[in-house]
Amino acid sequence: MPSAQPPTTRVVMILRHFTVGGLERVLLSHVRILLAAGYQVTVCVLDPGRDNALVAELPPQAQLVIVPPGRLRRVAFLSRIVSGATVLLQFGDGRLYPSIRPALRTARTVVRFCHSDYSHLRTPTKNRLDRFLARSEDTIVAVGGRSTRFLLDDVGVPASKVITLTNATEPRAAVPAPPWSWARDPYLVSVQSLYPHKGHDSLLAAFARVLARIDQPVRLVVIGDGDQTIALRLLADRLGITDQVVWLGAVWQKDLVDSVLAGASAFVSASRFEGVPISILEARQHGLPLVLTDIPGHRDGAGTSPATFIPVDNTEAFADQVLNVLARTRPSDLHQPDTHQLTREWETYRDGLLAIVAGACGSAAATAPRTVDA
User: How many CA atoms lie within 13 A of 244 on its CB side?
Assistant: First the structure.
């Protein structure tokens, strides 16, 4: 819906919390892009009570505010914060937060980002609610092709409201491999929150098959935390692979994550549903071979990088491909990313985001670009 309000350079991002996840890392890249372009950025956190470790990487130039509890107080607070601004809604897990929508009436423009295919989390009733709430949103940005199909086919959002923007990550500088003793052995790395749809149970079963057939030491390094952490550790014990699995937990500092990726032999994901995983894009920055389940988000994320796609939950085929990668991987095979392609992808993504925000802000000219502290 066209806005009658004047152009603005104020952008307000609203998210649930700063947990250690791909969505939050994407949001941080959005903040850095917009600050560098001269926008004034405010980040509103709805749930400050837990899981906010990644806020440590928020650039200090961005204003950080916590939305107070209570429906009426929350609406009044947000109404003041978003007045005349462009709002970017950055919710995960298919959440919609209808209770805050009345506050957004004071905003100049409302843009919602749909970061994944949430069909596995949705009911027909929730999709109807989504379709209704979309009427008050000016634009919905689908992060990747499968997110677009979810919005159009499952939710039924009008195609005229949807823009597809495929994720990319900033170019990375070379970093050393991790210094820890387990990194002396070849290792696979998985970077995902530990939730059922991420398929870590299948990944552990496949890794057990790998260990049964290989005559050299190899480890699986898992970065992430979630409601499946205890169950997965117990599963690893039942499979007899506990000593070969390294659980790093909720590591959020990008330098540490990059270091673990830099020393890996391959990146693996057995996920059952995804948007465009930021972790795959990060793995591509380090030139890692990719062994992935065959879902649209994985194919979108892999781009032109070397990747093998396995049917979901086919642990035997997954193990076969991991063994193939380990057999042919030499030091010279690794850490040779297609930097030109990755840079093009990043520039397309950055320019696409800036075009969306400029349109939402009424093409207001931002102030002179500036350097942003990481």
Answer: 24
